[in-house]
Structure formats: C-alpha cells, structure tokens
C-alpha cells in the first residue's frame, strides 16, 4: 500500500500553471519556455485528459492485478533474471579464457552448464508468456479462433533530471532546479508509457511521448556529446537487453509498443458483432502499418525483435489476422445456401489459408524460427489447414447440394466455377462439371475428401503443441468442422468411393 500511495502522491503533486506558447523558439528564452510548456509538443492540437488535475495523461495503475498486468509483470521479472544469467555466463566465459588452471577450467565449465540450463528454462518461460493469448481475448469470446497479440517491450527507468539541469545551466546559464517540475512531468510521461491502457487513450499516450523524442534529441542530446544516459529495452522474444545512448532505440521501441497495443486492441474486440470485427480489422492494419514504418525508418536496430526479417514476419501475421476477421465479418450475417455464395466463401477461406501459409513459411526460416514461439508457428499451420479445408467444404457443398436446374443461370454458374479453379482435371470443362451429374458429384466428393484430410491434419498439428492444447475453444471449432465434413461425406457416399481417385483441384483465393 505504501508503494501505491507513493505512486499516487507522485502523480497528484501540484504542477505549475502552464501559459500559452506558439512553438519552439531557437533563442535561449524560447527554448527554456518550451521545456516548461510541454503541451506545445502535442501534435494536431491533441488536448489533455486524465483527471485528478494532472497535467500528463496517466498509464494504467502498475499495481492493478489484471491478467494483462500480471503477464507484463512476469515478463519484467523474467527479463531481469535473464540479464543476471547472461552476466554470469559472460563472467564465466571471460574467466575460462583467462585461466590456465585445469581445475579452475573444470569448475567454470560446470558453472557454465548450469547457467546455460537456467537460461534455457527462462527462455522457455518467456516463450510461454508469448503463448498466453487468452488474457488478450475478449472476455465473452467463445465461438472464434483466438488471435495472437504482441507483448509490450519492457524498459528500465531513466532519470533525466541531472542531465537536463546540468545542460540548462551550462548552455543557458540558468538554474536547472527552476525546471524541476517540468522535468518530472516528462519522466512521469515516460513512466506512464510502460503501462498504457489497452485502448485509443493508451495509443495516444505513447504517440504523445513519441512526439516529444525528436525535440528532446535536438535540445538535449547533441550528436557530438556523450550524455551519460543509457536507454535500455528488452527484446520481447528473447528477453535480451539492448542498451544505447542515442535515442534511436527509444524511438523505435515506443513505435513497436504502439503496434503491440493496437494488436492487443484487435484481439480484444468483440468478434460477434460487425462493429467489433471492423475494429479488429482496423487495429491489425494499423499495427502492421506502424511496424512497416518502423522497418523502413529504423533499419539498423540492434534488438532482434525489430530486425527487418522479424518485422516482416510480424507484419504478415497481423495482416493475416485482419484477413481472418474479414472472413468472419463476411460469414457473420450467415452464409446463404446458394451456389454463388458458397463459392465466394470458398475463395475467401482460401485467401485466409494462403496468407497464413506465407506466415508459417516466414516463421520457419532461420534465424526467425529460433526466436518465434513454437505456439505461433503451430497456430499459423493449424489455421492454414483449417481454412483450406473450409474452402474445399464450401465448394463441395455448392457442387453436391446445388445441381444445375432449369431455373438456374447456367452462364453465371459456369463463370463462377471457372473463377474458382486455376486448372481443372484433364478433359473436363466448367460446363461439363455443371451439366453432368456424375462429374459434378465426383468433383464434389473429391473436395470433401480433401476437406476431411485437411481437418485431420489441423487436429494432428494442434495436438503437438502443449500451449495450443490449452485453448479448448480452438479444439471445439476444429472438431466441429471435421465432423461437419464427415457428415457431408456420409450423405453422399457410394460404392464407387473405393475406386474413385479423382483429385480435387486447388481453389483460387480471392477477397
């Protein structure tokens, strides 16, 4: 409770009244006033909120015991343990190089084996945190496949006060203590960015601090001078700390956390409503857009989670989840049991499968596969097979349940079918399949067989991942889809099944 009271006291301390200032001045007086009037740094005229008469918007209470805050606290603890073990390993390796005593070498090698074992265990625990998708889902979500959210990067506290006060005294010949409250405001803002709320206000908080950074860099971090301030951020996948004196790491990490926050907003959206699905689609697209900007702007970040290869994979994954939500939005009002509607849904499902296949391929490339949680790559593989099987099920339903009748538009069905297939079995045309009942049933049954095989493969892959097995809702969806395909097969089975080797064509994806 004392920590909580201290935190609240710090947040509620009185601020000086802020006057109006139109912008940064290049002269001495203008630059000093700019430090006082930090509100001029807000882009696009963003106004302040936050309550309790505080000047800066607050982050979430770091002592609040929500599922997400507990997860982030565990991440911070693991990061500290990982850096401790890495320091021990570095010390042991240096001692091993320096000593020529065989007995000492044996002791050091034994210690190194313990340290490496501990590091592997800690990395495994961190992978488990990155696999804990349940806390990010909508609390009422029971009928949709869970989505993956990015975790926030952790950082260390930084004290700007000494640097800024000394710089003001040296450069402007004024007492730096005069600006103590304003400097504390800035430090409070950075601290709040460690626990942003999972909504637009949280993103706005990070965006505001991000807008301060270029101005801080221009005024207090000259390129020809070592400031003595080190920005430390932890890799969100490995927990390895990265430390730099320049502000590039700080800027990039804040952008990464903005993208992570948007991904969390997307996973939390209510996917049982059109509005919720639209919010999810927009959030994942924004998250991918921020990461793409990060990849193009900061090309040499030392943190592996922000390397071009890793960012490219994350962008693909976020866009795949946006495409998945688009498919759910199309299906939410109900899929009409009509030839054209079923074929359209087949192409939508095939599109989701194709993108997840690209995601999976990027995840299994070296060195990404060594740092991405096994849960992530397994999930992408499961979804690849699941949505491909759904595509084949929809085509099978269209062919088996909707024989071409006198009242049907033959030309329209022929056009629709030709758009679904890139190639047809040799000697067959779309019109032949539509008009000949035997051909139509043969191709339809081939599709349902591929659907069943795909669902079985998805269930097999699902069983291989311990963390994935915790998602009961995913297993229920996979088994229900598998059973639906089995039922469709049993409704149309015949004696020729054992001698029919027709292979279902691939489905062209379209969205």
From TrEMBL:
Keyword annotations from UniProtKB, A to Z: Coiled coil
InterPro entries the UniProt entry points to: BRO1_dom, BRO1_sf, HR1_rho-bd, HR1_rpt_sf, RHPN1_2
Keyword Coiled coil in record: yes
Coiled-coil residues: none
- Which organism is this protein's natural source? Liparis tanakae (Tanaka's snailfish)
**Residue ranges annotated for the REM-1 domain, each copy included:** 61-135
Q: Where is this region: Disordered?
A: 1-22
Per the UniProt entry, what are the Gene Ontology biological process annotations, in alphabetical order?
Answer: negative regulation of stress fiber assembly; signal transduction
> What residue stretches are annotated with the BRO1 domain?
146-495
Q: What is this protein called?
A: Rhophilin-2
